[in-house]
Design goal:
The protein has 193 residues and is an alpha+beta fold. It has one helix and 14 strands, in the order αββββββββββββββ. Strands 2, 4, 6, 9, 11, 12, 13 and 14 form an eight-stranded mixed β-sheet that branches. Strands 1-3-10-5 form a four-stranded antiparallel β-sheet, with no helix packed on it. A two-stranded antiparallel ribbon has the order 7-8. The protein starts with a helix and ends with a strand.
Length: 193
């Protein structure tokens, strides 16, 4: 007799659990406010005009000025060169993970898709990241740049926090776009003969 009552009770509890998990609880999860982390950086060149053979440094200071996030990334890209050899050197950094050199032709994420959409890199870049992205914890990186030819040498700098929720999840939010179809702040070095 006890076994006969036991199975209907268990079956009823499973049905209630199923109904709650499929129809009631998802509504509560969807209504819950999502945390939005917000990257920010300041970057400056030690000299914006140099002679061929001289170097200048790019110092970047960044942090998450929003809420807690998973990853904080700062990227520098160099559209005027094919590789970073003897041109770009990382002098210092304090990001939690080591910077990654991305070469021309490497697979890259595009459109702020966090890896869901891919393309091929048209020029080299460097990504420095910290995981997790705790609010208001500053990070910095300094790169030594020695252009190999005269003219204008461009540098693109951007920062992205993951998860990428909306336009607050990247900085800058407007202006020039790079080969990843993402906004960048452009810096220029004028290289004289």
């Amino acid at each position: 007799m006890k076994k006969i009552l036991f199975f209907p009770v268990i079956a009823s509890l499973l049905v209630i659990y199923f109904v709650m998990s499929v129809f009631v609880l998802p509504e509560q999860f969807l209504e819950k406010e999502q945390l939005i982390s917000q990257p920010y950086f300041e970057a400056k060149l030690s000299k914006s005009e140099i002679s061929l053979g001289e170097s200048t440094s790019l110092e970047i200071k960044s942090k998450n000025i929003g809420e807690y996030g998973d990853i904080h990334i700062v990227s520098t890209a160099f559209p005027d060169i094919d590789n970073t050899d003897s041109i770009i050197k990382i002098v210092s950094y304090d990001y939690l993970q080591s910077p990654i050199f991305i070469q021309k032709g490497d697979e890259i994420s595009i459109n702020y898709s966090s890896g869901l959409e891919k393309s091929v890199s048209k020029y080299p870049s460097i990504e420095a990241m910290s995981r997790p992205s705790i609010p208001n914890v500053p990070f910095s990186m300094t790169q030594l740049i020695t252009p190999q030819k005269t003219g204008v040498f461009q540098i693109y700098v951007k920062s992205i926090n993951i998860p990428h929720v909306n336009e607050s999840s990247h900085f800058p939010n407007s202006g020039n776009m790079d080969h990843q179809n993402e906004f960048v702040e452009k810096f220029e070095i004028f290289v004289n003969p």
